[in-house]
Amino acid sequence: MKRIALCVLLATLAVVSVFASGAAEKGTPVAASASDSRYAKDQTLKMVYNREISEWNYLTYSAAGDWSNYIDNLVEYDKYGIVRGALAESWTVSDDGLVYTFKIRKGVAWQYSDGSKYGQDVKAQDWVTSAKYVLDPKNAAGTADYMFTIKGAKAYYQALAAGEQADFSTVGVKALDDYTLEFTLESRTSYFLSTLTFNWGYPTNADYLAAMGDNFGLSPNDFLYNGAYLVEAFEPEFYRYDVKNPLYWDKDNVFIERIENTYNAEAETLAPELFLRGQINYAKIPTAMVDDWLATPEKAQYLQPLTAERTTYWYAVNFWPTYDAKYDPENWLIAANNLNFRKALYYGVNRTAICSVFDARNPEQYMLSTITPSNFAAAGGKDYTQMGGLENYTLDNQFNPELAKDYMTKAVAELKAVGCKFPIICYMPYRTSDTAQTNVAQVVEQQLENLFGKDVMDIVIEGYPRTDYKNLTGRIGNDSFMLQWWGPDFLDPVTYTEPNKLGQKYSYIYMADGVAEAATAEDGKKGNDGGYWKNYIYDQMVDAAKAETDDVARFEKMAEAEAWLIENAYVVPVGTLAGTGYAASYLDPTEHMNAYFGACMYRYKGQHILATALNSQTFAEAMAKWSEERTEALKDSI
Amino acid sequence: MFSQFHLKNRLYDKMEEGIKEKLEEELTDDLFTEAPFNAKEAETTSFENYSYWRSTLKVFLSKKTTVFILSFLLILLVFCFVQPYLPGQKDPNRIFNNPETGIQLKNVAPCAEFWFGTNTIGQDLWSRIWAGTRTSLFIGSVTAVVSAVIGIAFGCIWGYAKKMDKVFTEIYNVLDNIPYTVLRTLITYILSPSLGTMIFVMCLTGWIGIARLIRNLVLVVRDREYNLASRCLGTPASKIIIRNVVPQLVSVIMLETALAIPAAIGTEVYLTYIGLGLPVSIPSLGNLINEGRMVMLVSSLRYQLFFPVLAVSAITISFYALGNAFSDASDPRNHK
Amino acid sequence: MDMLKYSIGRLLRSLITLFIVLSMVFLLMRLMPVEGYFGARGDNMAPEVKEQILKSLGLLDPWYKQLVSFWGRLLHGDLGESIVYRRGASCASIIGPKIATSFRFGIVSLLIQNIVGLPLGVLMANKKNGVVDKLGNVYILIINAVPAAVYYLLLQLGGSNIFGISMIYRPGDVSTMILPVICLSLGGIATNAMWMRRYMVDQMNMDYIRLAKAKGLSSKKVAFSHVVRNAFIPMAQSLPRSIIFTLAGSLYVESLFSIPGMGALLVTAIQRQDNTLVQAVVLLFSAMSVVSMLLGDIAMVICDPRIKLTSGKGGRV
After folding, report:
1. Number of independent structural domains in chain C
2. Which among A190, C295, A131, B68 has a CA at the least distance from the CA of C316?
3. Do B309 and C147 touch (CB under 8 A)?
4. Helix (H) or strand (E) holding A16
5. What is the tens place of the pLDDT at every residue in C39-96?
6. Among A275, A255, A369, which residue's Cα sits nearest to residue A48?
7. What pairs with residue A88 in β-bridges?
8. Per-residue pLDDT for chain C (317 aa), expressed as one digit of tens each?
9. In 3D, which of C140, C142, C182, C185 has the Cα closest to residue C160?
10. End-to-end CA gap in chain B
11. CB within 8 A of A7, min separation 6: which ones?
12. Is the separation of the CB atoms in A97 and A188 below 8 Å?
């Protein structure tokens, strides 16, 4: 008895002391066997995640992602970024660019989650069903806005929202027969195909939807499948297992047989270690760990740089400060309306310092001096960010402390004359659930305060932990100057004009002095502040651009609108800060569908599990090969 | 937390027993010799050369380890508050940048410039740990004092007013039956996290246990003969409570207060872990441990976890050891 | 007879306590932000739709009306439906399997805590200041001084590395249960050992032990036949609580090891603003607390002949 207890005790102590000495490093990852094939024998993708899917009703949810492997769209992007038919076999566009007619693939069955057939095939009518559902305001679909390029869609939606009768036949979504679908657009929209990969572009079987009623999309068993994968098992906050759909129309291009997602609340901390031990085959490597991984050869061999997403981040000056009086929002408004003050902020924000929070090795690659990222869109052989005056801002990173101080000196003199109190308190919320953003807030606070002096500007940062961060801060004017972000929804710079328009929940620039006029409900548009406004310069510029039918002219004018925002320093672009950093992975990113938005970003179709992980060198080789092939493919597609 | 309950039980059991035993020992027959009446002596009161407090203190300080821990804790406390004013100390929130590149000095290992290294955004860990210790000790002490005051007031009334006992007991049962972690999490969430919220939620639950303890002790002390006598003589209840009852409870209260500080640090670590901790601009031990945990997998960054854990452990062990030593010392049987 | 009378009286009091506790918690929940009733779609909902939802959930009624309907539903066993966590699923169906998982881990760990902790305490007390006692005290000190969130993570990384087992739990694979159970047990072993040791040391000075020793019994025999046996009486009171609260799971351990238990449910539900689920979990925990106290008292009465079976004196405190 005594001895046993002693042994137990000693063993425990020994174990504890061993752990303390750092046994965790010597994990030996399971290297794949020396087969000459490039791909692993076991095509099972294993991952850990820490954010559970809460909404399975794909029609209502605005974020793409989770279910994109379960249902297909009309079109998809291949690995070179070329649009290919998916559920549409082919399509034609009318000469005026207003009518898109799709021939729907025949014999694609609707299936239950266990893979058995529902008894009906996917038909043209299924997109009409989706459109009708999304455009019904009572379903509160976050995707409705994306449909407003379609003729009559907006009017129909607004009529229903106002409680009036509306006729769906006025909306430009029609099933001409079972396998012919026709979209009529409001105006020529060159990027229309890319909007189809958003959630509203999924088909829905009308009979099934009607039978399910409110229960549609409650769980993975409550919608019908036609995509590459089926949900085999799902326990929220535990696991989600997907299997390849044996009836999938394009099953020859689906290689990963199984996807095992295991929930772990500490996934961010544990994933790198799990990867090293061969328990998972994909892990994001947190910034803090990258240096250590790069310094250790056995770890460095797994590291591959991530291609940053096209979500763009910028600091927005708020002209509707609604926050607590103790931070003096009135005073902020006076300062915000001073051009020199805004310019001081514009030249004063050190983009390198911000981006190096995300990746200290190469902060430049994420930096942006425009809202629309470079290499996103081009027309007439010119990148969008080199048009309409934007080229003046993309020369360098725009951080210029001396110039910033000059502007601030001017601003202080002018502001003192109009009774502005110093220091100007700048209230800056940040998201606590996000370590990087927490760090950015601290970096910017200190950097600006040091630059201008605390007697001129006092930045107060405050954390908001909750999930509805944006609703508690920027969207209700609860900030002076804060980091905003926006991801593209389709392949056209128009998508980046959305956040700063009147009526959007992101920006109150229209409330700045001399930018728009107050209006009434009759002649104005409702802003998110609740008031009515008209003649907002930015909106007018964007609308003028949209009216152009030629892409070069359209881009030129749109870029002018963006340049106007930057020139007046209403916004301070920072960079593309999402999806930055490194991953350790057995996936080849060049096999991935090449899209910056929509469902294709999340699809595993076409990907393999590699036998050996890509390291920086093989990654570079793969990228080079891919670029070559892409050039060829692009030639062929034209 | 783990041992408070047992410590407390043991303490008041022993006080009770000790007093009984002492009475028995002292009241031997040879004390009762016949005394001739002396008018002068009748006016003076007898006084034995025994002071409970002096003896407690003597026993308390007689152990070398206790003295060591006590001085360690005192030095720690003093240093905590002196540290920011010492020369060469850094602002705990300041991010240090490389003067040439302007990029943050992230994850610098402990060196001559940064004694405990820097964290993942380039703040000095040495000054952050001291600032964190200050914050956590502040939360702990405020919580301890507030809980003690409310707990004592409530406990005294509860124990002393016989008629109210049933009512108070039911109130206690209700409050005690909402699990504390649930209550803390919920209230922090509703009020949104801040220093004030954190102290508030800890006080909200902290006093309940003390009140119960005090009530039980008061029940024991209340019906002692001298209090009965006092009551017969018409002394107001409030005076009896303050003069006769409360002093008996001081050792319990001291112990309770000492244990509340590590308990508060534990709660803070928990609240930070679930994302309801203090904002980053206020360094605290909970914040530091949580930040350290995130980089724990990288052996070269483990110092970021090691130092805050060291601070928490040192404080916790010190307070527990002192609590133990004090409960021993306050046992009259150990008095010489 | 007395026993029955006592139990019934105690039960009734518990029911009253439970009623008050649950009502208070319910009212406290009304202070939660209303966003928690709209779920992921809340962003795009028109104010009228939101109001409609609040109305259909009865949240616009005065508080006493809400309380009455809450009790009505609760008596029918209806805890409501989850809004965000698993939209449309009944809270009971979410909680049920999680409770079972937590219980499986908890009960094994509870056994270990007692089987290892109590003998350890006896051993430590037997030779006060001996080697075992000193090592044991160091162990207890470490466990209490190092934050659990830290040493669990160390155990997980080190343990899985040394024994070559999975870092995360996989249902059906017993080897993946070892580390979480060890983690869950460490604290309890320390508490049990410490309690037992203290109890033994205290009791050794008691008159009845002195008498037993004077009778000529060896101290080992005294320890086992008298002290250890008596130690189980106070344990009887805490045991029901220990067993019932294994249902609540452990936040840290379950988060680290991917165990789908109750531990993180409350926190997750709060973070994701699923008000009905938060309410269901809080109610459950409160009910567990009341019931375990009731069972503890009854067990105590059964075990300890010295306790008088009257509930006159203000009740248990």
Report:
1. 1
2. C295
3. yes
4. helix A2-20
5. 666 666 777 777 877 888 788 888 888 889 888 888 888 888 888 788 888 999 999 9
6. A275
7. A104
8. 677 787 788 888 888 888 888 888 888 878 777 776 776 666 667 777 778 778 887 888 888 888 898 888 888 888 888 887 888 889 999 999 999 999 999 999 999 999 999 999 988 988 878 899 999 999 998 898 888 888 999 899 899 888 888 899 988 888 999 999 999 999 999 999 988 888 887 777 777 777 777 777 776 666 666 777 777 777 777 888 889 889 988 989 998 999 999 988 888 888 777 888 888 998 888 888 888 888 888 887 777 766 655 444 434 44
9. C182
10. 32
11. none
12. yes
Q: Supply the pTM of this predicted model.
A: 0.81
The two structure tokens encoding residue B204: 């909200």
Q: C135 contacts in A (CB within 8 Å)?
A: 6, 9-10, 13
Size of chain C in residues: 317
Burial of A401 (0-12, 13-18, 19+ CB in 10 A): middle
Q: How many residues does chain B have?
A: 336
Tell me whether residue A156 is exposed, middle or buried, using C-beta atoms within 10 angstroms of its C-beta: 0 to 12, 13 to 18, 19 or more. Answer: buried
Nearest chain C alpha carbon to A2: C123
Judged by CB atoms closer than 8 Å, whether chains meet at A264 and C136 is answered as: no
pLDDT in tens, A366-409: 888 999 998 888 888 889 999 988 998 887 778 999 999 999 99
Give the span between the Cα atoms of A172 and C30, in whole angstroms.
45
User: Beta strands A378-379 and A382-383: pairing type?
Assistant: antiparallel
> How near does any CA of chain C get to the CA of A139, in Å?
8
Helices (H), chain B: 4-26, 39-43, 52-62, 64-82, 125-160, 165-176, 180-191, 195-222, 225-232, 237-240, 246-273, 285-294, 303-329
Nearest CA in chain C to A48: C258
Residues of chain B contacting A462 with CB distance shorter than 8 Å: 279
Q: For residue A435, what is the nearest residue in chain B, using CA coordinates?
A: B291
Q: What is the pLDDT of residue A10?
A: 44
Which residue shows structure tokens 């995509």?
A: A227
Q: Which residues in chain C have their CB less than 8 angstroms from residue A5's CB? A: 116, 119-120, 123, 132
Domain that holds residue C111: 1-317
Q: A61-83 burial string, b = 16+ CB within 10 Å, else e?
A: bbebebbbbbbbbbbbbbbbbeb
Which of left, alpha, beta for A511 (phi over 0: left; psi -120 to 50: alpha)?
Answer: alpha
Tell me the residue type at B2. Answer: F
pLDDT in tens, B294-330: 888 888 888 999 999 999 999 988 888 888 787 777 7
- Which residues lie across from A284 on neighbouring strands? A583
d(C-alpha C71, C-alpha A324), whole Å: 39
Task: Tell the residue number behind the tokens 């009703």, with chain if given.
Answer: A57
Residues within 8 A of A (CB atoms), C 36-75 only: 39-46, 49
The span from the first CA to the last CA of chain C, in angstroms, equals 24
Q: What is the pLDDT of residues A114-172, one digit of tens each?
A: 999 999 999 999 999 999 999 998 888 878 888 888 999 999 998 998 888 899 999 99
Tokens of B297: 């997998």
ipTM of the complex: 0.81
DSSP sequence for A446-513? HHHHHHH-TTTEEEEEEEE-STTHHHHTGGGT--SEEEEEE--SSSSGGGGTGGGSTT-SS--GGGST
- Kindly state whether A270 is in contact with chain C, defined as any CB-CB distance less than 8 angstroms: yes
Among A183, A237, A202, A191, residue whose Cα is nearest residue A72: A202
The CATH number given to whatever domain includes residue C203 is: 1.10.3720.10
Q: List chain B residues with CB under 8 Å of C198.
A: 6, 10
Between CA B255 and CA B242 the distance in angstroms is 19
Round to whole Å and give the CA distance between B84 and B266. 25
Instruction: Walk across the sheet containing A229-235 and list its strands.
Output: A44-49, A258-263, A239-244, A229-235
